[in-house]
Amino acid sequence: MSGNNRFTIDCQIPEPSEHMKISTNISQLGSYYLTGLDYNGWSVVCLWSYESSPVPESIEIRRKIVVGELVIEGKLTLLRNDEAILEQNFLQRMRSGSTFIDIKLNNANLRSRTSFGRPPFLLKAHVEILPDQGTLPPMPPIYRKMKKHSTCLLHLASDFAQLTSPETSCVPADVHLKCGSASIPAHKAILGARSPVFAAMFANPMRESEENEVDIADISVFVLRAMVYYMYAAVIGKLSVSSTLGLLVAADKYQVGRLKRICCDSLKENVSVENVSMLLDTGDAVSKDLKSFAMDYICDLPDLSAIQNTEAWKSLEKSKPSLAVEVLTSVLKSRDEKIKKLKT
Fold first, then answer.
1. Which of 7, 95, 77 is nearest to 43 (CA)?
2. Distance CA 107, CA 88 (A)
3. What is the number of structural domains in the chain?
4. CA 120 to CA 61: how far, in whole Å?
5. pLDDT tens-digit profile of 203-233?
């Protein structure tokens, strides 16, 4: 390519859906993408690492002609209801033979984590493509090692995911998780490595260790399968808020810390007036951070009646009246503090 090439991206990003799923490229395991954006041989792809996240994890800028080293630079903006919720500059080298650059979106740049809601978002970017004339320094060796390490982990996750299915597993299961009428095959080594609770269960002379069966109560089969799959592949699929809450409770019960954090992050990103009482209720039981987030969300609402009219709030008042009183007390205290600030 000779000379400079510029183009502007201005497109709507829909919510990830099953028909958008990537299933053939191992380097994008568990990701979703948006196609149909073509700019004179250049295209844009949005990737999600797991479906419950409303914001893409990264943006890929791809080319059809792979000859020549180029420098890609520009600025991208993610908007929701005409409000910019993320702005990020980028400057990367595209080497000869390479078909794309990957721009990781930095969640720290998000201007709000409570109000941007679900897609659709609007993606805008100004992209400039220049011939590489040494304007970028060589990629540091440590960065090359990190990229190689990341790819290896994705391959490892894919291999481990095959162990969850008897049809694809090359290692027979040595334990079964009984949940209602379902029996989920698993491997003690994997469960024990991912959960201290399972580790203790299999290390001691307990019935579960001797009979190679574990009875699982208070967790739905769907949630249990999701947790087991995460233990193997470190991936969760698209879950409703209700299922994510159930998965959070399961992750807390079996002390799967990373899964617990993923669930909390997903719930925060999907909070609404209708479900915040559910987040508060579950947070009160298993996550101080989620409870605090839900409390702040309620206190920031201009009209508390919007919450009080929901079925989730009415249920909370009946099951945990003391928690409902705590919310009302916090709302009054928050309003008093705001009034004092206005007077000063």
1. 7
2. 10
3. 3
4. 20
5. 888 777 678 899 998 899 999 999 999 999 8
Cα(222)–Cα(215) distance, rounded to whole angstroms? 15
Q: Output the pLDDT for position 136.
A: 52
One domain, residues 183 and 215: yes
Q: Do residue 18 and residue 71 come from a single domain?
A: yes
Position 292 pLDDT exceeds 90: yes
Cα–Cα distance measured from residue 325 to residue 158, given in angstroms and rounded to the nearest whole number: 47
| Domain termination site, one of 101, 135, 169 | 135
Whichever domain contains 49, its CATH number is 2.60.40
Q: Which pTM was predicted?
A: 0.59
Residues 91 and 125 in one domain: yes
pLDDT of residue 183: 92
Residues 129, 152 share a domain: no
CA 196 – CA 142 distance, rounded (Å): 33
CB contact at 8 A, 16 and 30: no
CATH number for the domain that contains residue 240: 3.30.710.10
Q: What token pair was written down for 56?
A: 């893409």
Q: 151 and 261, same structural domain? A: yes
Per-position DSSP letters for 297-332, written without gaps between them:
HHHH-S-THHHHTSHHHHHHHHH-HHHHHHHHHHHH
